[in-house]
Recover the amino acids of this structure.
């Protein structure tokens, strides 16, 4: 069949080359944005008198019909079409004849595809933001339930200081808040309409780009037509935000995997979000968390893919750019999938506070507090630090915790120690003394929860 773009050429395109060139498998998912864009275009053409008002009405009506036909299954997208733009135009022309052929006046597939992607990404970004909000809401709940659940905080994966589990969970809530705002920022910059840039140079027709942009919910238009059809930096910004989001989910997953191991025993995942082993009957594997961690790689890869694809192409449109969609769509699908499984996995996870407390009690994580106690009694911090180090070594040798040491044993190290030291190194006290802004005390964690709640 002759191609719509066959002007200069008339030889048939080789079958393999034709398949190679086709993007409909990927871009068919933008059918809705493509049709809505065309409806706005038809309205603009009619308003400006570039086509007759009646022609505009016919185009709008039939485009609406095509949209609902695709949506209710009456019209199946033909995968032998080159791309979604060609498919819609072909159907339109088949149905209404010559009027259909007028739709492509004062536009090009170059600005059309740039428009469709922006509209599609705007919609998908909103969905992703809702999923992030749901996850943050779940984290707030878990944090609230565990605002006084004591757990060791780690540095270098070595027990460091007592914190609350709620405090740790809130750290992720803040990261996700920033992920959300990075996406919102990217959408803000992206939300300018490229349509009307045409092939690259603009057009001789008396178009109204601002009108068309406002019909489609854009904040304005891209002010340089070459820029409008040449760049995909908005894909890169979004993919970069998604990569950072996945990095956060991946770290969180790594912790869930550690916490749910026998060695930690801090949380138990619901059966609904674990799998068994085909050979080892005792196993309960945190596959969902592992997959989130694993899929992070492809989201990073998609970003690198698009950066590399764009780096060497001259302005304006080049066919290389057709590759943008596979990358960004895959990132969107992966991020949505990961958020959709991560949220209920966390919501249904059982927190084993007893094991957390047990781990807190045998890692000398109150050693800093013991040093602080000596400082309050007048010793310089470095001296206190050294003495406490010696006490810890003594405890390890004698298989004792700091709480189990007798006051006489303490006094052998330094006679500054009094009975009141025990109250200072009590885990609950250690946590609740950390009242500095953002710290781990219950009141500080409550303040954090309330702050984030206000932003949801
Ligand atoms: N399928 C193409 C893409 O996704 C649409 C733009 C085609 N433009 C062109 N001049 N061949 O990039």
């Amino acid at each position: 069949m002759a191609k719509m773009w066959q002007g200069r050429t008339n030889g048939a395109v080789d079958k393999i080359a034709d398949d190679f060139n086709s993007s409909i498998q990927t871009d068919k998912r933008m059918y809705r944005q493509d049709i809505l864009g065309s409806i706005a275009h038809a309205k603009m053409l009619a308003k400006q008198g570039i086509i007759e008002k009646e022609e505009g009405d016919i185009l709008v009506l039939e485009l609406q019909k095509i949209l609902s036909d695709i949506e209710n299954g009456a019209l199946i997208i033909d995968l032998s079409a080159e791309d979604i733009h060609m498919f819609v135009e072909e159907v339109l022309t088949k149905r209404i004849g010559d009027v259909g052929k007028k739709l492509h006046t004062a536009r090009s597939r170059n600005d059309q595809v740039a428009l469709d992607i922006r509209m599609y990404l705007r919609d998908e970004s909103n969905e992703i933001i809702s999923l992030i909000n749901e996850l943050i809401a779940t984290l707030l709940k878990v944090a609230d339930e565990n605002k006084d659940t004591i757990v060791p905080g780690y540095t270098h994966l070595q027990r460091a200081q007592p914190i609350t589990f709620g405090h740790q969970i809130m750290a992720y809530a803040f990261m996700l808040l920033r992920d959300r705002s990075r996406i919102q920022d990217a959408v803000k910059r992206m939300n300018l309409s490229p349509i009307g840039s045409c092939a690259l140079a603009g057009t001789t027709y008396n178009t109204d780009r601002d009108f068309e942009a406002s019909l489609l919910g854009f904040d304005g238009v891209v002010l340089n037509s070459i820029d409008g059809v040449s760049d995909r930096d908005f894909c890169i910004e979004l993919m970069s935000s998604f990569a950072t989001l996945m990095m956060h989910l991946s770290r969180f997953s790594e912790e869930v995997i550690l916490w749910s191991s026998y060695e930690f025993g801090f949380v138990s995942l619901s059966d609904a979000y674990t799998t068994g082993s085909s050979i080892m009957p005792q196993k309960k594997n945190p596959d969902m968390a592992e997959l989130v961690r694993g899929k992070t790689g492809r989201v990073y890869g998609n970003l690198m893919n698009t950066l590399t694809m764009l780096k060497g192409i001259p302005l304006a449109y080049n066919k290389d750019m057709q590759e943008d969609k596979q990358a960004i769509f895959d990132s969107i699908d992966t991020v949505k999938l990961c958020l959709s499984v991560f949220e209920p996995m966390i919501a249904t996870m059982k927190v084993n506070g007893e094991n957390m407390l047990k781990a807190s009690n045998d890692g000398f994580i109150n050693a800093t507090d013991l040093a602080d106690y000596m400082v309050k009694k007048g010793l310089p911090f470095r001296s206190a630090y050294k003495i406490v180090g010696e006490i810890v070594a003594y405890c390890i040798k004698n298989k004792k915790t700091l709480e189990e040491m007798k006051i006489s044993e303490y006094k052998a190290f330094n006679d500054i120690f009094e009975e009141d030291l025990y109250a200072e190194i009590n885990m609950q006290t250690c946590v609740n003394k950390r009242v500095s802004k953002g710290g781990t005390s219950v009141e500080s964690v409550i303040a954090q929860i309330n702050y984030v709640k206000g932003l949801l």
